[in-house]
Amino acid sequence: MKAIEITEFGAPDVLKLVERPRPDPKRGEVLIKVAAFGINRPDVFQRKGAYAPPAGASDLPGLEVAGEIVGGEFGDGVANPFGLTLGDRVCALLAGGGYAEYATAPLAQCLPVPAGLSEVEAASLPETFFTVWSNVFDRGGLGRGEGGEQETLLVQGGSSGIGVTAIQIAHALGFRVFATAGTDEKCRACEALGAERAINYRNEDFVDVVKSLTNDRGVDVILDMVAGTYVPRELSALADGGRLVVIALLGGAKAEVSLGEILRRRLTITGSTLRPRPVEFKARIAAQLKETVWPLIEAGTVRPVIHCVLPASEAAQAHALMESSEHVGKIVLEWGASA
Known about the structure:
There is one protein chain. By secondary structure, the protein is α/β, with parallel strands linked by helices. The protein is 29% helix and 26% strand. The chain contains 11 helices and 15 strands. It has helices spanning 41-47, 119-122, 126-139, 161-172, 184-192, 206-213, 230-237, 259-265, 279-292, 294-298, 315-324, and strands at residues 2-6, 15-19, 29-39, 64-72, 89-93, 102-106, 110-112, 152-155, 176-181, 197-200, 219-224, 238-246, 268-271, 306-311, 330-334. The strands form 3 sheets. Strands 3, 4, 5, 6, 7, 14 and 15 form a 7-stranded mixed beta sheet that branches. It is globular and about 55 Å long. The termini are close together. InterPro entries: ADH-like_C, ADH-like_N, ER, GroES-like_sf, NAD(P)-bd_dom_sf, Quinone_OxRdtase_PIG3.
């Protein structure tokens, strides 16, 4: 099969199209003939040598695919929560190996392609939707406040793949959502997706804006991909009892905060990575997505936001585009004659 390999750590041009043996699914896994796969920031970190695959995962990058189930075991003792079988179109969350014509995935991490979506569109879903649900709603606990009111969410990096997903899901479920982005154009894109107000962090202070929009109360949950010096400012933007959920460290891995403020205002700083979590955890998130979010996608309330679709042979260009941060939403690669 064709695959995109990291031949050495470095710039995007270390990604090369190679021939690899087709992987064999283990018990509980299926073999997927990949039609398309999504590009995610962890792929870039892996290419640079800063994010190794977890033990047992493929050395190939790629955390999400969509395609057709063409192999695997089905039957007694194999978790198959959605009743999938050979020939079904699925999108799947992987620990690695997505940059290939064939990939294996735990059956419990495969979801049926939502009705009305193409495989290219479905390839943009798993990594961001699993990440958003597990962090905003599971870990961050976005829900109703003590008085029964809907809580509020601030999404840092609202125009990213994670950002556009978080905005749409939270808005569709009735929450007030605010976002930050680096250009006025990206801010308008965030607002078109459901953000009540998008803040251009280059010329506005997100703390001041959020406070003004919430009667000086602050927001209940912040989804943060920046960290670093943003953290103490984010604590100031939280309401009492608020939760800061850190999922990336684009601004640095260290921050200086006041523990007194955290104690006094009952604040929580938490975070997580999805890739190394066990299948059982990811299966639980998959079930929650299928029940709550898949109907929103099929109704058109939540939709894939894809910046561009490129042939798989242009993986290096896709990585360069992601690193430029000039995109809004997801970058997807597809297999075809041009690959």
